Amino acid sequence: MSEKIRVYDQWAGNERGIPEDKTRCVAEVTDFTGWHFYQCQRKRGFGPNGEYCKQHTKKVEYSKATLNLALAFADVKMKKKGSGSDKNE
Ligand SMILES: [Zn+2]
């Protein structure tokens, strides 16, 4: 029963990556180049499972809402497309 640990900045040139620091926020942040993803350096204690910092909690909730919206929209679009083609043919 070992809890899975996240790994950050894992890529071809750094296959082992950087293991998650359990005391810090789990959000990924990019460095100044935008190429590497690092673990957020803020202390966790907020959001789902208390794994996020205060700042990223908001982002997680926001992106979840956006994703749900996008999925709902895609669903509607698919249904429309489906029923539309039925009528046309
Ligand atoms: Zn954070």
Question: How does this model look, in words?
Answer:
- The chain has one helix spanning about 55-89, and strands at about 5-10, 20, 30, 35-40.
- The chain has one domain (about 5-85).
- It is built from one helix and four strands; from the N terminus they run E-E-E-E-H.
- The longest helix has about 35 residues, at about 55-89.
- The model has no long low-confidence stretch (mean pLDDT about 85).
- The protein has about 90 residues and is an alpha+beta fold.
- A two-stranded antiparallel sheet has the order 1-2. The chain has a two-stranded antiparallel ribbon with strand order 3-4.
- Helices cover about 40% and strands about 10% of the residues.
- Zinc ion binds next to helix 1.
Question: Tags for this entry?
Answer:
89 residues; extended; 1 helix; 4 strands; alpha+beta; 39% helix; binds zinc ion; single chain; two-stranded antiparallel sheet
Order of helices and strands: EEEEH
Radius of gyration: 19 Å
What is the share of helical residues? 25-40%
The total of helices stands at 1
Strand runs, count:
4
Distance between the termini: 56 Å
Mean pLDDT: 86
Principal-axis shape: extended
% residues in beta strands: 5-15%
How many domains is the backbone divided into?
1
Question: Biggest β-sheet, characterized?
Answer: 2 strands, antiparallel
Strand order of the largest sheet: 1-2
Structural classification: alpha+beta
Ligand names? zinc ion
Contiguous low-pLDDT stretches (5 residues minimum) are none
